[in-house]
Amino acid sequence: MLGLVRVVRVPLRDRTYSILIGERLLSRLGAACRKLRLGRRCAIITDTNVAPLHATTVERSLKQAGFESFRITVPAGEPAKSLSQLEDCYNQLAARRMERSSFIVALGGGVVGDLAGFVAATYLRGLPFMQVPTTLLAQVDSSVGGKVAVNLDAGKNLVGAFYQPRLVLCDLTTLHTLPQRELRAGVAEVIKYGIIRDAQLFERLERQLDRLFALEPAVLGGVVSRCCEIKAEVVGQDETEGGLRAILNFGHTIGHAIENSFGYGRYLHGEAIAIGQVAAARLSQAVLGLSEAEAGRVEALLKAAGLPVEVRLTAAAETRLLRAMQLDKKVTGGDVRFVLAKRIGEVVWGQRVPAEAIRTVLRPPTTAQRSRGKAVCQP
Ligand SMILES: NC(=O)c1ccc[n+]([C@@H]2O[C@H](COP(=O)([O-])OP(=O)(O)OC[C@H]3O[C@@H](n4cnc5c(N)ncnc54)[C@H](O)[C@@H]3O)[C@@H](O)[C@H]2O)c1
Ligand SMILES: [Zn+2]
Question: What's the pTM value of the predicted model, to 2 decimals?
Answer without folding.
Answer: 0.94
